[in-house]
Amino acid sequence: MPDFKLTFQEEVRRLARKEVKAASETLAAQQKTIRELTKRIAVLEKKLVVPTVAKEDKPAETAIPAKSGKARFSPKTIIKFRKKYGISQKGFAALLGVATFTVSHWELGKNRPRATQVAAISALTKLGKRKVAALLAEKAPAEYAALKKASEKKTAKKPSKAKAPKSTPVKA
Question: Rounded to two decimals, what is the model's pTM?
């Protein structure tokens, strides 16, 4: 009986090794196939030429000339720019083609804009008041109308009350 037990154990070990070897060979073959496919994808992506069509939703890159180079970003920059030109967060967001809450998060320091957006912000801050107003009129007509209305209120002269000179009593 002991011979049967040893023979059975050896047979089980032999079959287990055979199964493990077959499974590992299959795994190695699959890994090799994955590596080859990954390389083919990389080569095809390099050959692929994607046409860059300017979307109407995000025209910030085409409308605002962005210079290559590192531009600094500070939330204070956006706040100062907006106050200087009287632009709301919504209008500023429209100029850059981002959401309003994105601008809010930038100003609060919760998030930082991407490099392309930093370049667009930098280019936007270097534009003059007329160009910014023209861009705003193009991108967000409602915001431009609000800006124009606010500036008209500031420049409109209030009716001044003409003060009459103090009269001195005349002695008779």
Answer: 0.48
